[in-house]
Amino acid sequence: MKLERKAEIIAVGSELLLGQIVNTNAQFISRHLAEIGINVFYHTAVGDNPERLKQVIQTAQQRSDFIIFSGGLGPTKDDLTKETIAEVVGRPLKLDDEAFESIQDYFKKTNREMSPNNRKQALILEGSDVLPNRFGMAPGMLLEHESRFYMLLPGPPKELEPMFENEAKPLILEKLGSREKIVSRVLRFFGIGESQLETDLEDLIDAQTNPTIAPLAADGEVTLRLTAKHADQAETTRLLKETEDRILERVGEFFYGYDDTSLAEELAKACRSKGMTLAAAESFTGGLFSSWLTEMSGASEYFKGGAVCYTNELKVSAAGVSEDTLQRYGAVSAQCAKELAAGIRVKTGSDIGISFTGVAGPNTQEGHPAGKVFIGISVKDQAEEAFEFQFAGSRSAVRKRSAKYGCHLLLKMMEK
Amino acid sequence: MKLERKAEIIAVGSELLLGQIVNTNAQFISRHLAEIGINVFYHTAVGDNPERLKQVIQTAQQRSDFIIFSGGLGPTKDDLTKETIAEVVGRPLKLDDEAFESIQDYFKKTNREMSPNNRKQALILEGSDVLPNRFGMAPGMLLEHESRFYMLLPGPPKELEPMFENEAKPLILEKLGSREKIVSRVLRFFGIGESQLETDLEDLIDAQTNPTIAPLAADGEVTLRLTAKHADQAETTRLLKETEDRILERVGEFFYGYDDTSLAEELAKACRSKGMTLAAAESFTGGLFSSWLTEMSGASEYFKGGAVCYTNELKVSAAGVSEDTLQRYGAVSAQCAKELAAGIRVKTGSDIGISFTGVAGPNTQEGHPAGKVFIGISVKDQAEEAFEFQFAGSRSAVRKRSAKYGCHLLLKMMEK
């Protein structure tokens, strides 16, 4: 069995430090390395400055044995990743004939004249394996030197990403891969805060080794990433399943799906599997819920449409709320939410109607504070229901949270 | 004059190293520091591991005198940024009463129970200035210690970004600012590609020194960031204005606004200033356009609402399209777009009606390929117009691009 590798990623480019671009390469490479069981312990970004780059490389040599560089392989004087690594590790650069030919071809194909500095792009660290670049000129490379691996990749994501997946990953698996099978799964929760979830699972999280359990909160949702490793694939899966079952025993009521799914996607699936159709009357959410439900292809199977009834007049004319309700209870009320839901269900001929009425903020409305929200649900042959919430946060957060709760409530209802 | 600062940004969180999220915080902070003339020389990301974090802090101390941390201020045991810095710099943590109160308030407001580990979030490094968190619980802080500055910020961008702009930036300017006045401005363009824009401005971009001109393409829009520096504020502004004028002379027809604005926000402003109201009938965009227009507070002044008419039945019943039109021309047609726009305008009593009908994809519809889109516009006492597009890209890209073109067309119309 091969050694456990300690990897780190060094991005070279002053445009990162000026905030002109975001370092998506580090994320991309990290995600792919995690999948093949290689641990990344550091990301660094440094500018096009040979002195600082040199020091960053030396720091990396002290703590990592697989160092991956992105950027700085271009034709200009600014681009000095190769030259600086050559100096630090004491390996010369030499012209790679194949890479040089492919650069010449590229210019012929695009009918442009090659400038002398493009020759620089065909230089490689002596003794390294070359990674061809199918979407640009600079080749990548992998060098093994004094029991450390150095991988050099081009900066533009549209060159780096295919090169990594098609050329680099197989080479890494061959030369550095671990024999352990890694399986990772994300559990998604809604309606429970991060700290509550952790409190409920404290002993499991404290005792985590294999699988590891990593909680993350974003956009009003909490996720747990479970990652299991084992030489035997079946055992990896068993380990994962065992931990997942323990977690869901305690907080299963808040669980809604795996990996990259969303509440809207799960709701779409549920509607499809029950053969039910949906319509929405949206006041302060202004179409947000509907736009989520129509984001998936095939939405017409379960979503009919609805009304964006921002004004009170439209609540009456487009969604069938009575004038009397608006006068007696106001638009921000359980009664209005119920009538909106029932009205839009009937008008669209759907099985389920949902409504959103409330105060997105930042100002108060009808005497209600920002964040006061009513969600109405109407199902054929059942009494309408209304759910009241008081959310905190910005206007945008209140709208998103409300639309998510709408999905959540419908999912819970359909589970029954 | 104050010293030239050497800044570096350290992001703490294993989710970065696993590639689960991208480090947008480093970009955000870098961009804002560049604007106020503070040079960032390194970005680092490290996991939730006290030993490695400690070493990263020690490396930073050797090369930087302004160290900014993002992440690791949460309530859980994983969150250890404060604790580790306290150990490295030798400053104790103490409870900040105001921060603790604000956390308690947050729980009261949202009707949830505070778990004991939330108290940990109110601990601050003794002697630091506290940065209140308006969108979450963990306060930020700035500590000056042995001629170095340490700034701690929460990890979630929706907390970090407003905290940085409103609380941190003024404090940095006061305590660490340079005397050179830096003015930066973003010009936003729609309807022109990045390479076309660069070709049109090639000589200006090549000759750039002060102001610098940085192009960036994202989400179908192109932006140019101009940044000028000068000891004299008036001169900085003059330099910026001069370059902006030259740019707009050539590509002004595609320019729509400054800095963080959006097409929807500019459209909202235009409607307000002309006192005109708007309604939308959305088929394949499913409420996306409406949700953008209602994202801004005070939307009721210019936006009445509309219909999400995903099905043909709703195009007829909710937006007044004739059955005959659907049969003769189909839903994906100029004629249908015009009737939708006119119908929703009349039904909502608005000054302007806009409609979106087309094929979001990935499948074809009525024989039309994915990306075929008609946008209809109807203005009182004018003949309806329809605009035809063929977009490329994913379902999500086609929907967004269509909603943006809707804003763009209305803006152009209102300019006349």
Automatic annotation (TrEMBL), chains A, B:
Residues 8-175 form the MoaB/Mog domain. It holds the Pfam family CinA. Gene3D superfamilies: 3.30.70.2860, CinA-like (3.90.950.20), MoaB/Mog-like domain (3.40.980.10). InterPro entries: CinA, CinA-like_C, CinA_C, CinA_KH, Competence-induced_CinA, MoaB/Mog-like_dom_sf, MoaB/Mog_dom. It comes from the Bacteria. Belongs to the CinA family. This is Putative competence-damage inducible protein. It comes from Bacillus haynesii. The lineage of its organism: Bacteria, Bacillati, Bacillota, Bacilli, Bacillales. The gene is cinA.
